[in-house]
Amino acid sequence: MLKDVENGLVGTVIVKDQSRHGRDHLETDKLMEIVFPAYDVRFIAVTDGVDSANGFNEMSGIKNYFNDFYARDTSKKIRAVFRAKGERGERVGTSIPYGYMKNPDNPKQLIPDPVTAPVVRQIYELCADGKGTRAICRYLEEHEIESPGVYEFHTRGTKSKHPDLEHPYLWAQQTVRDMLSNRIYCGDTVNFQTYSKSNKLKKRIKNDPENILIFENTHEPIVSRELFALVQKHYEGRKRPDRQGDTDKYAGYVYCADCGSKMYLNRGKSIKPENNYYQCGGYQTKGGRYCTVHRIKANVLDRLVFKQLRDMTAYAREKPEEFYEIAARNGRETAELEKKESEKKRIKTESRIKELDNILSCLYEDKALGKITPERYDKLSSGYEKEQTELVSELAKLSTELDSMERRDECISEFIENAKANLEIKEITPNILKTFISRIDVYENPEKYSRSCGNMILIHYTFPSLNKSEPVLPPIADEAFTQAAC
Q1: The pTM is what?
Q2: Hey, what's the torsion of the CAs at 50, 55, 58, 61, to 10 degrees?
Q3: Would you kindly state where each structural domain of the chain is located, as residue ranges?
């Protein structure tokens, strides 16, 4: 319409009332008092009795302001409703994630879609096997699996995701990457990931981590937490795939033992595959003043991890009782003390949350009886509600810590069972790493430029307090340098 006004095609603009013209008082005042008169356009608001041919009175500007105030007040109320829903653990998003559908008996609840949930699970499994996003997209296209936008168009008739109907099996890498980092697939609800500054600014801004609320186990998961954690660990390392579309299997596992930085795989066109090597990320980005190179060849690391893992699993299979006792003995007293402290904090936090519930209830009664003003109630309740939200988040963390302590013995038993299930490990794969190893620390070579002395590495297994140190060996002298310690 404004383009037609500027081109002289409009003589009169007629609206029901001024609010139909706009609710931003700055813009509506500008149009009514500057733009329309400049192009000789007559403006009429029927129910407000406004006609620019008779001139504007003072009430026109005031009505524009009140229309703006009404929109802002409505936005504030809706935000408050969504905030309350989000803090209760209800989903505040409007779109249904790919892989899920609404429960016919309860529209507020999500259930796995029998058609797309297996696709999501397959994507996670491919990533866990070391496939990059490009290779996953190629796999989905080869198996003629419709992209999320096309599937939504065919099932719901909506084009909100801009479906490419000419290429229905073409998946975007960013779509796959977003799915691989979405906690909703392991059964969690994540609220307030983004926000807008006001009702006039529609741009969504990423929220700070401390302002994001996470509620676990709110619906049926599509992937297990173990598989989700493996994928996240995989993406903690270098994400760049090689020419075949595969990513580094050790990504997120190898760390510098001295500065704690991740170690990254260095490869290129001029480097032969057998000469690919890992290097300290701190050294790469900050130089020699921060840390040293900690260089270790990829094939040497692979051989060493393979040998030690094979020996460790054989020991767990052949002497399970002895293995269990050694693993459980280390750190048992420390774990018990930490468990008692966490239990005390949990009881204290739960007590305070109940106190805050009583305080908020009393405040509401005082407001209803007129003992305190609504403004005073809003100020006090917002402070207590903020404290309560922080305590709920802290309680969830404490519960996770207690669960992890209680799972210590279970983890040892799982390790033994996995060792029995994997009788013969033929090569190191992402699944093998996920099953047995949580972290690998690489130390600097004690003799600089030495060809006979290798780096020491420390392997952290998937349960606490059972680690191994082993020097990284030159290819010729493996047996000569074998040392091991629990």
Answers
A1: 0.56
A2: 60
A3: 2-87, 100-236, 254-311+422-481, 332-411
